[in-house]
């Protein structure tokens, strides 16, 4: 292999490694985004449940639930 072929091969290797690293980073970012989405959904569901309990408590306290 002459020098230009060797440089071309190394450039191809570097490009492939960079693409793989980029793909890994995108996958990690996607996983973080999905985890955040799930956490927010869970927090929203908990808040909704607490609001429903609070509303029932107010109804009970004011006699509106009879």
From TrEMBL:
<protein>
    <recommendedName>
        <fullName>Stress-induced protein KIN2-like</fullName>
    </recommendedName>
</protein>
<dbReference type="InterPro" id="IPR039624">
    <property type="entry name" value="LEA1/2/D7/KIN2"/>
</dbReference>
<feature type="compositionally biased region" description="Polar residues">
    <location>
        <begin position="1"/>
        <end position="17"/>
    </location>
</feature>
<feature type="region of interest" description="Disordered">
    <location>
        <begin position="1"/>
        <end position="66"/>
    </location>
</feature>
<feature type="compositionally biased region" description="Polar residues">
    <location>
        <begin position="31"/>
        <end position="49"/>
    </location>
</feature>
